[in-house]
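Study this chain:
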Amino acid sequence: MNVLSRLFTSDSINLNAQASNKAQAFENAGQYFATKLQIPSETVLSFLNAREALGSTGLGFGVAIPHGRIKGLQEPCAALFKLQTPIEFGAPDGKPVSLLLFLLVPEKATQEHLEILAVIAQLLTNPQTLDQLQNETDPEKVRHLICHWEALQ
């Protein structure tokens, strides 16, 4: 198990997400987190957009890690959306993104935020793991892969 194991449940993994652009992907994430965390979707959307305005959270290789610090949030929360059709995301390699791993953390969780992002970045830049994430069709297998990733290296 790793630091991500407490962030993901089967319902936080959507392998059939629909979005025609970044704004729609963020709206969908806002709705998911609003339901899960009982916070307004506009709050989530505002923080995701504010972070994205600082620079794209696209990593390249079809992957992005949209993230934000949310005032009033008690614990970090994450979701993985695999889009049916890749979207433009301003990634450094210029490739469209189909795998989005959203991360929300409490406003003051600076060190924890950086530690979680580091693990996510390592996970998503590992070619074998990325291939498995992009091709797996079972949300539970994706959750298991994410939560046990360190053990698989």
